[in-house]
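Pipeline run #58 for the internal structure catalog. This entry was flagged by the ingest filter as a single-chain record with no existing model, so it goes straight to prediction. Upstream metadata was stripped on purpose; only the residue string is passed forward. Reviewer on rotation: M.T. Logging verbosity set to normal.
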Amino acid sequence: MKLKKFGLILLGSLIITSLLLSGTAYAQEEEELPDPGITPDSPFYFLDNWGKNIGLFFAFGPEAKARKALEYAEERLAEVQAMAVKNRIREVEQATNGYNEFLAIVAERAEEARQQGVSDNISEKVALATSKHLSVLDRVKETVPEQAREAIAQAREASINGQQNALRALARERLERAAEINLAAIEGRLNRARVQTEEGNTEEIEEALDDADKMFRFGEEISEIAQGLGKDTTTVEQLVAQATSAHLEVLAEIHEKVPEQARVSIENAIANLLVNRERVVEALKNKGSLGEIPEGTPVLQRIQVEALERIQEKVQERVQEEDQERVQQELQERIQEAVQERIQEEIQERVREDTSNLKPEAPKPVASANETEEEETSGLRRTQDQKP
């Protein structure tokens, strides 16, 4: 009887400890996670699951449940990181599955909170947290064996989807903040592509650019949400126009350094970004709100002619899909101008190289009068000697 009582006390203590550990965090740095607590390689891991179920049960209201589920998702992510360090593939997969499940609960409860009109804070919190999660998963992916990468890829997808669900909700109430977070997420993906370019990791470059492209397109969805609600999108369009100029600069820099096989992804990203930016610039011009934002894209002048021609083809394909003739015409003219400038620069460079290679022949020295007379005398002697 005493043993049974002791067992119940121990069980209760472990559950309470699990709940407490779920909220323990390290220093407040951008990408640090909570302490993982009991990890999947522990025989007491089932207690961790019990503790989290109890914690969710006693979180009252959809927003409180969303916050608690987000807290538990971060702990599962900390477990993923801890198990990756130990090279425990099965446990990495188990923890990533738990992460995905808690993010699904976050999305469900946050939507419930939105319908009740109390979602602003939780939506922003989720959007910012999932940006951090994506960076953590990037690092973990670089360390785990190939067998665990599929699980990490699924967690990355869940993270991006979780962020976009949160931003959809946030855009209904705080449009500019939703746009800012999305643009910052794009910048994070482009910076990752730039880092991976320095290291020559083609697969990672393409993955980061693919993430960025999804976020580019999602930015259009945010604007559509605002327009559907009858909101003024001028400030957001100005933010997008300014940010995309910086994004194009990064893409041009990457294009100069990236391996040949990764250039297709970069040229796709440049084409999509050009189309998006042109739409935004056109909208601002129509409103008379362009201000000091430049219409043109001088960054194109840094890209080689052959690449510009490929980008031009991709722009045509993208715009034709959406039947935006004016946007297509404007972009075609700008790209054509950039092509002509690049051709002229290359011709001038070749002329300079050819000119520098042409060296004038050195003039022959003029003979003196004495030297000339001496040559004639020696010539006459040779002639006389040859006579019989």
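catalog note: The longest helix spans residues 325-357.
catalog note: The radius of gyration is 33 Å.
status: ready for reviewer M.T.
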